[in-house]
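Researcher: I'd like a candidate sequence for this fold, 92 residues long. If you have to choose between options at a position, lean toward the conservative one.
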C-alpha cells in the first residue's frame, strides 16, 4: 500500500490502481476506435471527445475509456481497466 492511500482512502488519487489491472495506450490515429480483438458496448458519450465502453461479454467487467488528447489531437489515449475473464472473441 502506498503512503498516500493509508492516509485517505476516499480522497486518494491512486485508488483506482487498487481495483485492478490498468493499461493506458497512446496511439497516433485518425480514428478513436481501435480493433483490439474484443467486443465493446458503448456506455456513454460525453463531450470533450471522451467515450466509455464496457466489454460486451456477459459477466466481464472490463472497461475501456477512449479520449482524444487535447494537447495533441493526433493522439488517442485508450485506458483499459480490469482483466477479461474470457478469451478474445477474435481468437475463437
Ligand atoms: Zn471481456
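Model: Candidate sequence:
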Amino acid at each position: 500500500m502506498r503512503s498516500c492511500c493509508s492516509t485517505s482512502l476516499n480522497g486518494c488519487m491512486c485508488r483506482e490502481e487498487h481495483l485492478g489491472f490498468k493499461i493506458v495506450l497512446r496511439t497516433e490515429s485518425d480514428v478513436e476506435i481501435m480493433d483490439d480483438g474484443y467486443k465493446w458496448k458503448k456506455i456513454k458519450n460525453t463531450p470533450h471527445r471522451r467515450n466509455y465502453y464496457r466489454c460486451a461479454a456477459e459477466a466481464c467487467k472490463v472497461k475501456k475509456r477512449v479520449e482524444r488528447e487535447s494537447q495533441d489531437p493526433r493522439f488517442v489515449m485508450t485506458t483499459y481497466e480490469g482483466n477479461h475473464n474470457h478469451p478474445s472473441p477474435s481468437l475463437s
